Hints:
The protein is mainly alpha-helical. Helix content is 36%, strand content 7%. Pfam families: Lipase_GDSL.
Amino acid sequence: SSTAAAIAVLALAAVAGVALGTTAATKKAPVIYIFGDSMSDVGNNNYLLLSIAKCNYPWYGIDYEGGYPTGRFTNGRTIGDIMAAKFGVPPPPPFLSLYMTDDEVLSGVNFASGGAGLLNETGIYFVEYLSFDNQISYFEQIKNAMIGKIGKKAAERLYHLGARNVWFTGLAPLGCIPSQRVLSDNGECLEDVNAYALQFNAAAKDLLDRLNAKLPGARMSLADCYSVVMELIEHPKKYGFTTSHTSCCDVDTSVGGLCLPTADVCDDRSQFVFWDAYHTSDAANQVIAGRLYADMVSAGDVQQGNTTVSDAPRVVRSPRPV
C-alpha cells in the first residue's frame, strides 16, 4: 500500500494538466478529472459495499467543511480539492455518486478509489475498489454521457484544446512515510524503498519523453514530487510543522495504519505532515498543492491570468477534538 500511496498524486497532476489546456484556450473554468487511489479518493469507496478500504468514520474529515467524514483519507482536503480551488472550481464529485444524466458530468469527475494502483491487482486485498482500468472505463462512460448532452463535436474539444497537455508528478519518498519508518531499526527512512521511487521516477520521465516524441502535439511533463515531499519531511519547521516522522493519529504500527475512532489524535493537527501512517494531512496537502501549482506556472503549463487563482489558504491551527 505504500506504493499506492503516491500514485494518487501522479494521477491528480495528469488531470490538472488536462484542465490547463481547456482553461488557457477558452478562458473558462476548467473541467478537472481525477484518477488515483486513497490520496485522491473523495468518497467513491463509500459506494462499494464490499470494500474494506474506507474511512467513513471519525476522525477523518474533522477539518473538512462540516467536520464530518466524506470518504477522504485525511483530516481535511485532498491535494485534488486544493488544486481545484486554485483553478477556481469546486472539487469534482465522486463518480459513483453520479447518474449519467446529471449535468455534473460536464463539470469534472473524481474517479479515484482507495486501494487502486498502477496494476489492477495492487489492492486486491481490499476486496472491492475501482482499479485503474475501471477508472479509465468509467471515464469513457462520462465521455459518452457528455456526447449525449452536448454532441460529439463539442465533447471532443477536450482533446484538441487540452487533453494532449498532460502533467504528471513522480513518486514521493515512500520510504519516509510513517508506515515504512517503523520497519527500520532506528525509525529513519528506508533508503531502499526511496531508491525504488527514484528509479520509478527516472523510468517514468524517460517514458514521457519518448511519448512526447512519438505523439504529435503531445506535451507530457513529470514534476519532481519526490523533492517537494522530502523537503517537508527534512525541514518541517520551514513550513510551519513540528513533526514529519510520525502520524498525528499515532497509528504507525497499527494494523491498517488508519485513524480509527479510538485513535489518540494529536493536539494540533496542523503541526503534523502525516495524518495517518500513509496519508498526508490537510496542512501538508496545502503546501504540496502550492508547490505543484507553482511548478505548473513556472513551466508555462498554466497562465495565472486565465484562471481564478488565490494564494494557498493559511494553515488553520486546529484544536484537539473532544
